Structure formats: structure tokens, C-alpha cells
Amino acid sequence: MKTGAIIVAGGTGRRMKSSLPKQFMTLGGKEMFVRSVEIFHGSDFVYSTVLVVHRDWINKAKEILLKRGLNSVMVVPGGESRQESVYKGLLSCREVGLEAIMIHDAVRPFFSRSQIPELLRLVAPGRGVVVTEGVNDTVYLVGNDEVLDVPDRNCLRLAETPQTFPYDEMLEVHKRAVEENILSSTDDAQLFVRSGGQVITVNSIAPNPKITTAFDFDMAELLINKGS
């Protein structure tokens, strides 16, 4: 199955409270987005890799990729939202002839490359696959700070990435969303299900945290040091 990977790295680092976008910060001496790119770029199962970054950081991203020996990675400008950035990444792959697309957050640098074949075996026409994590804590559904319901946590999953779909179908899903003025979805599986697709979940085989805050970053450094 001819597969592409889109690494979404369009954020500007507001929640990290840093002038440097968090995906450009170094973890264990290597930029976070580079760690995420290498997961897919180094896989025998991925034909092409696209990095989507804020337009102001394109040249810097290309410079870093060249230094890291990853200059074959395509770099495209992102949009005003994650949804728009993913769509731009999808559009950049139109001439490649992809059958499947894996969409991954650049700020999840710990996803295990060895799980890629499992995800690709499960993706099929009309069916996507998302990496998830089980919920260990009790979760409340609230309104105005009042507990309205306590969902069964066995039926809940934390959404992670990569999320994998048939390429042509996901491109059409994004195109339709724009036509219907849906512009700020934060999850590709949500759009896929809304369009009538099926999405199945697979729990990550390794820690796969999203690095969003300074605390997350410190914990990520600890993970890397432990791995070393």
C-alpha cells in the first residue's frame, strides 16, 4: 500500500510561552519535529513524508531538515487552523498516487515506528484507524460546574496520532468540510465519521504523549534520558 505521512507542525508555541514554536525546541539534542519526521521518513512502509509548518518558519524547517539529512521531506505552509494545515498537506500529495495517508502531530515524538504496519493492515476503503490511549481516571460530564453524568470509562479513549485513512477519501472529506464551512475541526477522525466513514481504535504500544506545556516538555526530557 503506497502510504504518505503528513506531520503537522503549524503551531506557534503560545501555550509553551516561548518565542520558539515548541516543535522547534530540542529534546535530547534534536528538534521535536525532526524526531516526529524520522518516525515515518525512516520507515520502509512510508513512501513520502510531508511537513506542514507555519509560513514564517518554512526556511528554518528546511535548513534543519537539510542539516539532519532529511532534505527529501516536502515542506509546505500551514493554515490558520490545524484542519486547514492538514488539508494543505493532503493537497500537496495529489500527484504522488497515494493509497493511504497517516496524519501525525509533530509534538508527539515518541510514537513507535514498529506500529505502522499494524495500522496499515487495518485501514481499508471506508475505514480509518486511530491510535488511542485508555482512560484510567473517572471522567465527569459537567455543565456549569455541575456533574451531569459519569460515563463508563471502559467506553472512553484518549485520541492520539497518527490517524490513518484511505488517501482519496480523506482528501474528499476535507474538501467537503470546507464547502460546508466547517473550518476548525481539531480531529480528522471526527470529520471522517461525520462523512459516514468508520474509524476503529488501536491503543499505542508505547508512551505517546502530546508535548504542549513546559511541564510536558520536562517530562519528555525525562523519558528521553531514561531511554538513553
Automatic annotation (TrEMBL):
Keywords: Nucleotidyltransferase, Transferase. GO terms for molecular function: 2-C-methyl-D-erythritol 4-phosphate cytidylyltransferase activity. InterPro entries: IspD/TarI, IspD/TarI_cytidylyltransf_bact, ISPD_synthase_CS, Nucleotide-diphossugar_trans. Pfam families: IspD. One of its GO terms (biological process) is isoprenoid biosynthetic process. This is 4-diphosphocytidyl-2-methyl-D-erythritol synthase. It comes from Mesotoga prima MesG1.Ag.4.2.
